[in-house]
Amino acid sequence: MKLLKELQKDIRFNEGLNACINCGVCTAICPAAQFSEYDPRMIVNIVQGGGEEEIEKLLKSDTIWYCGECLSCKTRCPRGNTPGYIIQALRALSIDTGMFIESTQGQKQLAIKRTVGDHILKYGYCVYIDEVDTDMYPEQGPVWDWLKKNRVDILERLGTKYKKEESGTLRQTSEESLRDLQNIFDETGATKRFETIEEYSRLKALEKGIAFSSEKDDYFWEVYNKK
Amino acid sequence: MEAIIKNNVWESYQKEIAEDHYYFARSCIRQNFFPPAEDLYLKILRDDLKKDIFDDSRQTTCTGIAYHSGIIPFETIMTVVARQFSLMNDAGYENFVVSCVTSFGIYTEILETWKHHPEKEIETREALMRATGKTFKVPKNLVHASDLIYKFRNEIAAKVKYRLVSKETGKPLNVVDHIGCHYAKIFPKEGIGGAEFPYVLAGLIDEWGGAQVDYPERRHCCGFGFRQYLLKSNRGYSVSNSKLKFDSMQPYHPDLIIANCPGCTFFLDRWQYVISEMEGKTYGQNGYGIPVLTYEELAGLLLGYNPWNIGLQLHQVAVEPLLNKLGIEYNPDDKYKGLNGKELGRPEIPSCLKCG
Predict the structure, then answer these.
(1) Which positions in chain A touch B313 (Cβ < 8 Å)?
(2) Residue B34: HSE in the Cβ half-sphere, 13 Å Cα cutoff
(3) Taking CB atoms and an 8 Å limit, are A71 and B270 in contact across chains?
(4) CB of B326 within 8 A of CB of B162?
(5) Which of A82, A93, A98, A133 could be A74's S-S partner, Cβ–Cβ 3.0 to 4.6 Å?
(6) Cα A65 to chain centroid, rounded
(7) What is the pLDDT of residue A51?
(8) Is residue B1's pLDDT more than 50?
């Protein structure tokens, strides 16, 4: 497989890469570059160079997973490049080829699939109150513990439609809508991507000797918590 | 003179905002972390501004958080968005209002993509038909929810009971505006004021009597980072970016932060709690934090809504210092009650951050 050719099939790669002059404005404005081992100028330089070996190294690296997708780079690039779009294409190819499993950061995609990804198909939204607690999200603070403990009463006072089958906040998404989402996922590649993440993660868990089944198993906690 | 010219740059970035009849798309984060905010928004639109806005039970997420975290293909999110457009068509609306800034960026990006790559729209239509049997027309007008509050800021100003002025000193309160990155950094022409001088919230501050706070890191990201926040092990990225902003704004003594993005509102609230626990540092006065409100929460307060009926007790940073400055009367004993005054206990008190 020619990796550059695969990247060039992705519209976000083509929209993201015009002609980089290596000025480094993207890195200067980038919040991820400020706090992580991440340099968008270098990444754009590598993909613009087109070397297969270098691109493969990127796809197996941690660095492509540090971008925060704020897309500040899009506003500032004087040549209309968008490193954040190039990152999207690199991440997609890294998963599709299974190379994501070679990096610690890539391995963590399983935790995202099993939270946000699975929530979409279960609740119709990326986040749902029942799945959020202060063990996983301690920054939610004591006010969240109070809300969770008293959620039926509080959400009723505040006029939400928690778990009700009608329009409104935190309602129960209908079976029909959830079925539509599942069908769209099956039709457009999301289900396949989920299966790829699960399968490569299973093999990695086997290799590491960590228990792997589904939902919040030992491997989930390993990738969710490990730095 | 040069500074005046620069500050007026926003005036060249305007956009069309429909006058009435909107289809409302809800936010994943707002529903959970500030549950009454969207219903307050709908109330203000319907009851105070007499507008028609439709809240559809069939809508879903746009999948934007998953997309920006790398687990959802572009083809999937385009098709989910197409389904939302189809629901809008079914309901008889043409004007689409997006509650979430991430979603607003997504919808904008997809419409732009279809404009420049019509084959992608055709592929999406085919995928939607195969998956759901639905067809769609794109909206005539697409805006973010904060755009409507901006558009009707004068009408709201005419109805308010309080202004952004200190009751004690009569001086304008210092208000930080924080604009979600995906509101205008991706497509500056789609945001009021563009990316460099966004005016969508600053316009509310000006119109409602407050003073804008201009500080060095005003345009810096809150640090959501999508996958960076979702993973506990990567969350240091998120709090570090917010801390950069707090440290930068503190010398200007803000009385309030307002944000138009669900994630930003949440992070700017909760990371103040975390920093207080980790470092013993607080950013407000006398051990309090700086209250963080959404645009409709601020509008609701000024219009005279009871702060405990619009969910301000669910912020981790206490809003009482702001209520006191504005001269808003409130019953502290009502803060943590359920329906009909039911006693629900109280949240634990943080070890450092003052609450209530």
Answers:
(1) 143
(2) 34
(3) no
(4) yes
(5) A82
(6) 9
(7) 97
(8) no
Least Cα distance to B27 among A162, A169, A116 occurs for A169
Pair (B80, B193) in one structural domain? no
**Which of B282, B259, B263 has its CA nearest to residue B272?**
B282
Of B132, B234, B338, the CB nearest to A184: B132
B132, amino acid identity: T
Q: Write the CB contacts of A104 (distance below 8 Å, at least 6 apart in sequence).
A: A62, A226
Beta pairing partners, B178: B259
pLDDT tens digit sequence for B29-41: 999 999 999 999 9
Q: Please give the CATH superfamily to which domain A3-98 belongs.
A: Alpha-helical ferredoxin (1.10.1060.10)
- Cα B184 from Cα B179, distance rounded (Å): 8
Instruction: Find the closest chain B residue to A135 by CA distance.
Output: B232
Mean pLDDT across the stretch B249-276? 98
Q: Are residues B80 and B188 in the same domain?
A: no
Name which residue leads in pLDDT, A45 or B1. Answer: A45
Continuous segment of H or E residues that includes residue B54: strand B53-55
Report DSSP letters for B284-316, one per residue. Answer: SSTT----EEEHHHHHHHHHT--TTTTTGGGSS
**B216: alpha, beta or left, given left = phi > 0 and alpha = psi -120 to 50?**
alpha
Cβ-Cβ contacts under 8 Å, A158 against chain B: 35-36, 39, 309-311
d(CA A56, CA B350): 47
Q: Phi then psi for A18, rounded to 5 degrees? A: -100, -95
Nearest CA in chain B to A177: B58
CA dist B264 and B266 (Å) reads 5
- Over residues A55-67, the pLDDT tens digits come to 999 999 999 999 9
Query: How close does chain B come to A223, measured CA to CA in Å?
Result: 8
Same domain, B167 and B74: no
d(CA A98, CA A103): 11
Helices and strands: H and E segment counts in chain B: 16, 8
Tokens of A140: 């939610």
- Calculate mean pLDDT across residues B12-41: 95
* CB B24, CB B99: distance < 8 Å: yes
Map residue B24 onto helix, strand or coil. strand
Instruction: Judge whether B210 lies within some domain.
Output: yes
